[in-house]
User: Fold this.
Amino acid sequence: MWCDRVVKLKQTVWLLFPSLVVALSGRAAQDISAGLAALEEGRAALKARNMEAAAAAFGKACALAPSEADSCYYSAQTLHILGRFDESQRAFERALEHATATAQGKARIHRAAALNLVGLGQPEKAEIQFQAAVRSYLDHAPGPEDPRVDYGAFLVRQGRTEDALQLLEKAAKAKPGSARAHAELGKALLDAGKAQAAAKSLERALALDPSAWAIRLILGRAYLQLGRTQEADREFMLGREGWSRHQNSPAVTGVR
Assistant:
């Protein structure tokens, strides 16, 4: 008798299985649709510079549709901007779990996760993410953000300037039109006591981005070390003027 019951139970399960699949598929489709709607809400809030609303909307999108349109990445980045680093890290981890994009997409997530870990005061974990970002970046065609620049800047702050120089020299050579790559290389060279080479890199960075007041202040330091006091004074003056304009300008917030 128990055999008959088992057979009937199996038959019932198989009869219900198609309906269950359809129900689950319908629920999944609804979640994705709601997630994409939340993603659009987040983007609209971001344009309006309402970061709290953007974080809530992107968080909903990440929960409902984690594989869709970088929803978890946007959630993590917005939380990072708000200084909610622990929550941001969890969102970055979820973004990596669901990353189905190219190696460049993964490089972007690893790079941002590394910067968030720096904010959390976890340099060892940050370095692991920087290294993963560089590996993903080099596995594919170069993208807009070279993680070697951020990794190099991180290493300088960690007191590992020689290691940083190797990365930054490669980044500046790979992207000669990147003002930031040349600027970070210039900072590292100055930190290494190579003021002449630093000045050249910083001059190149300024030629690419004349409005970069922070670079002018560092270039002034390089000129001062080289005994070029008049040029140093000029860069310090222009740098301070640029800083003053920056302080008085409306804040611009965005997620890259």
Remarks:
- Residues 2-47 form the longest helix (46 residues).
